[in-house]
Amino acid sequence: MPAEVSIEAGGAVVSLEPDSAESGGMLKLSGDHPTIFITIRWAKPSDLPRFAKLTLEPAGHPTLRRTFDAIGDIEDVWELHLHP
């Protein structure tokens, strides 16, 4: 179970409630190449691989999904390519 989940894009940060298996929120994406930063800190340290799935539903584009994984905490970047 995560202790902290945050997603940042365009200078805005969304902190999600880590007490459920699925969390949701809204984040404004601007431009054709927005960058998303995801940070997940786990409540209990472990040497086992951990993963998180992120689903985005940008207006006017197909749904996008990405799986992030790491040994320990997850700190990753997703550079999107949203072309009309």
Write the H/E string, N to C. EEEEEE
Label the overall shape.
elongated
The percent range for strand residues is over 45%
Radius of gyration: 13 Å
Number of continuous helical runs: 0
Count of beta strands: 6
How much helix, percentage-wise, in residues?
Answer: under 10%
Largest sheet: 4 strands, antiparallel
How far the N terminus sits from the C terminus, by CA atoms, comes to 37 Å
Global mean pLDDT: 87
Structural description of this entry:
The chain is elongated, with a radius of gyration of 13 Å. The mean pLDDT is 87. It has no helices and six strands. It starts with a strand and ends in a 5-residue tail after the last strand. With 84 residues, it is mainly β. Strand 1 and strand 2 (12-16) form a beta hairpin. The chain has strands at residues 2-9, 12-16, 35-42, 49-56, 64-71, 74-79. Helices cover 0% and strands 51% of the residues.
